[in-house]
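We modelled the chain as a single entity of 154 amino acids. Its sequence is:
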Amino acid sequence: MGDKMEYRITTKSEEETMELAQNLESEKFPNMVVCLEGDLGSGKTVFTKGFAHALAIEDTITSPTFTLIKEYLTGELPLYHMDFYRLDKSPEEIGLEEYYNKGGIVIIEWADVVKEYLPEERLDIRIVSLAEDSRIFVITPHGQKYIDVCEAIL
């Protein structure tokens, strides 16, 4: 295993975070899996909002902390938004792996909680909070399709 490629993007506002998500969305494909890690309040849900907005989903996006999974089926592709901060079931119980093949986009907040269940090919995004609204997005693609996405927009 060589060193994984890593891209670092700094955003200075929620708008810029949403813009980054919208750029990523422009390279979307069915069964895309995006894994978000970062502290509470680091912008995982803001990122997801930007992505959903670009998918033409008009629902209000809120973090599915208690429901674990929210499905938005009105956009260009289905969006499966997951949040495992309070995961108290096994990933098998919620059928996590089935979502990878439903032809939609899977965005997982607190993906590190289900590390063993993540697909080999995916996009890992770690969000590091700096001062105020500044964030560093550390983006690591796993698999050629995800490398292509990063090269197209970053």
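As a brief sanity check on the tokenised model: Residues 51 and 141 are 17 Å apart (CA to CA). The mean pLDDT is 93.
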